[in-house]
Design a protein that fits this description.
Layout: E1 3-9, H1 27-30, E2 36-42, E3 57-59, H2 66-80, E4 85-88, H3 94-104, H4 111-115, H5 120-129, E5 137-139, H6 143-153, E6 157-161, E7 171-173, H7 176-185, E8 191-195, E9 200-208, E10 214-223, H8 226-232, E11 236-240, H9 244-261, E12 266-274, E13 279-285, H10 293-301, H11 305-313, E14 329-334, E15 342-347, E16 357-361, E17 368-369, E18 382-387, H12 391-404, E19 407-411
Parallel strand pairs: 1-2, 1-4, 2-3
Antiparallel strand pairs: 5-8, 6-7, 6-8, 9-10, 9-12, 10-11, 11-14, 12-13, 14-18, 15-17, 15-19, 16-18
Helix pairs in contact: 5-9, 6-7
Length: about 425
Amino acid sequence: MSSAILFLTRWPLYEDERRWENRLAAPDLVFDPETDRVTYLCDEGGRSGVPADAERVHVVPDFGDVDGVLRLVDAVVRDEGPFDHVIGFSEMLLDLAATLRERYGIPGSGIEETARFRDKTVMKERVSRAGLRVPRWASCRTEEQILAAAEEFGYPVIVKPVRGASSQGVREIASAEELRALCAERSLDDLEIEEFVQGEILHVDGVLDAEGKPLFLCTSRYISTCLDFEVLGAPLGSVFQTDPAVRGRCEDFAVRCLAALGLRSSAFHLELFDTGDELVFLEVGARVPGADVSYVIDDVHGVNLWRLWVDVLLGRPVDLPVPDPELSGGWLIIQGPKPLPQKVTAATSLLGHIPYVYRELVPRPGEVLISRPGSYATLQGGRFLFRGGTQEQIEEAVRQASAQYRLTAEPVP
């Protein structure tokens, strides 16, 4: 049965053969040209990600101009007819997709449901009500209230945007003086404060079917943290966990959190703390994981999470390979020197030098590294994918790569 799909995209595809970002989410891999009538709504950045032979393409100057987008889509619906589905992969387009579904009576996640996976206070409230451990938190309203919450939680505390991604704008606050300074420098309206949870951070990724049951699950442990990557410039990566006890514990906890949030027919990326004594919910996105997680999952387990997500949304039959739980893999991102921009003068390849590295994106001499806050799947100081070894071997290879990689660059005048 044919489906009329409005596909929102802001992601480019690169002609550079070295670069793999966004490839698995490319329309020719996730849609079926014989049954899917796709209308593309993109910005200039996403134009290169639209097939060259696409017949229905509409470019918006700015996805953030919601009124302008709605006027354009009103005209598209009037001229082309109604849509059966609205699909957007980017975290930053989930709210817009929900608005469009409600405006045109299209099935799928609406504004309230989407808020559970965009608003960090809403998601923690729902998970907490289900009896699952979350960090103590409070919405930020006044300086007095936020200082009182910090005293209750104990320093350090975490202050973060209520709606955000990739640790952008997240601050670890060590004292009341730091917190007062933060209150003085910006509005508190879009922030929350939460207790600092000491423990390792893991992530569980996968896709749920229309009943909320997992079709695929993969548990990984972070090397460093997204916050340390953004603030300190520490290398960031993660490694698939193969210990059945670790996987079972984390995946059971994740599925219970997702059930509390009512997620169905969706990909997800859920992060949690392991304190040693208990698991603590951190946050969740109703989307495929970022950075290079999905690419290693596809290369190790043969599962394209983007395609699987679309198959579920469109009601297609799903025929998944049976993943080998003993197979591990991982990824590593190394930032360039600061401050940016800087022009690369030399960078060393790790292919053939570090075990289990099977793909890399290393900048070439003369390429300029620029700041891309929150954008992990771009040209960084270095990106490396790992597979073929045990969990312990992959973890050691990631450590070796982090220690041995060398890049030199010079500031751009």
